[in-house]
Amino acid sequence: MSSDRTLLMRPSPAARESLSALTPILHRVVERIGETNDITTLALEPLEPPSMNFRCGQFNMLSALGVGEIAISMSSAPHERMLRHSIRDVGAVSHALCQSSVGDLVGVRGPFGSDWRVESARGDVDQRDTVVVAGGIGLAPLRGAVEELVRDTQRGGGRIFILVGAREPSQIVFRADLESWKARGAKVSLTVDLATSEWDGRVGLVTTLLADAGFDATNSRAMLCGPEVMMRFTARALIDLGMDPEGILVSLERNMQCGVGWCGHCQLGPLLLCRDGPVVPYAGLVSQLLTQRER
Ligand SMILES: Cc1cc2nc3c(=O)[nH]c(=O)nc-3n(C[C@H](O)[C@H](O)[C@H](O)COP(=O)(O)OP(=O)(O)OC[C@H]3O[C@@H](n4cnc5c(N)ncnc54)[C@H](O)[C@@H]3O)c2cc1C
Ligand code: FES
Q1: Which domains does the chain have, with CATH numbers?
Q2: What are the beta bridge partners of residue 281?
Q3: Does 259 sit in the ligand 2 pocket, CB within 6 Å?
Q4: What distance in angstroms lies between residue 74's CA and the mean position of ligand 1's atoms?
Q5: How far is the CA of 139 from the centre of ligand 2 (A)?
Q6: Per-residue pLDDT tens for 18-55?
Q7: What is the pLDDT of residues 149-176, one digit of tens each?
Q8: 213-156-78-33 Cα dihedral, nearest 10 degrees
C-alpha cells in the first residue's frame, strides 16, 4: 500500500469518532486462527488507540484493501483485550480477509447495528435462563454475548443453554470456548447433520436438542443465529414450548453496503437491517418477513 493511502485512512483522534461510520480505520492483524477449513478468526488492533467500543451482536464493515468491503460481526466480547472477527471464506472479499497474514492491514468501519441485549433494560443482570442456538458460523456473532452471559452467571444471572448444530464435526467452531463455557457452568449440547466415524455425539437438526435441553421456556429468552430456515424452525419450536416471541432474538443478514441507513441495500420490509438490525425480536412482522428471500 502507498504511504498516501495510509495517511488518508488515519484520521486525527478528535475526528475519529464521527468519521468512523464512513471512513475505514486501519487495523493490523495481530493474530490469525484457522477455526475450520474455511473459517478464520482475525484479531485486529488499531494502528492508533483507542480501541473500538461496541455491544455484542453488532457488526463492522471490514475492508480487504484493494478488494472490497463486507459486513462481519464481532466475535469477541467488549471486555476482551482483542477485537476479533471470524470469517467464512465464501467469495472475493471474505477470501482475501481469510488469507490475511499477521502484520497485514485491514480497514474497519463501525460498529453498526443492534445487539443481543445481554444486559437487561435496567442495566442489571438478567435472571431469566438464556437459550443460545447457533448453526455453523452463526456461533461467531454470538460468541461475545455468551462470554458476557457466562460472566453474568457468576453475578447472579440465569442459566445458559448453548445448542450448536454443524454440518459435520469438523465444522464446529470455537471448540476451546465451548469447553471453557461448559467448565464455567453453561450447558452445552452439540449435534451434526452428518456424523463421521469418530463422532459419538448427537446427529440431527439443532431443533432436536430443544426438548431435553432442560430450560424452562416460560421463563427464558433466546438468541438465535444461523441460516434463516434454522432460525425460523427454532423460533417456532420455542414458541410452541411456551417462550414469548418478544424474548426470542434473531440475527438477520442482508447484503450491506453503507452500514448507516443511507443506501437501502439491506432493506427487509420496513426495516433497514444495518440500522434496525441485525438483531431483532422474532415477533409480529419479523416472523412474517423471515419467509421472504433476499432479491
Ligand atoms: C450483519 C452481518 C453480519 C455478518 N457477520 C458475518 C460473520 O461474522 N462471519 C461471516 O463469515 N460472515 C458474516 N456475514 C456474511 C458476510 O457479510 C458475507 O459472507 C460476505 O458479504 C460475502 O462477501 P464476499 O465478497 O466474500 O462473497 P460474495 O462474492 O459477495 O458472495 C459469495 C456467496 O456468499 C453469499 N452471500 C453474500 N453475502 C451474504 C450474506 N450477507 N449472508 C449470506 N450469504 C451471503 C452470496 O450469495 C454468494 O453465494 C455477515 C453479514 C451481515 C449482513
Ligand atoms: S446497508 Fe445501506 S441502508 Fe443498510
Answers
A1: 3-112 (2.40.30.10), 129-289 (3.40.50.80)
A2: 249
A3: yes
A4: 14
A5: 24
A6: 556 888 999 999 999 999 999 999 999 999 888 889 99
A7: 998 887 777 899 999 999 999 999 999 9
A8: -40
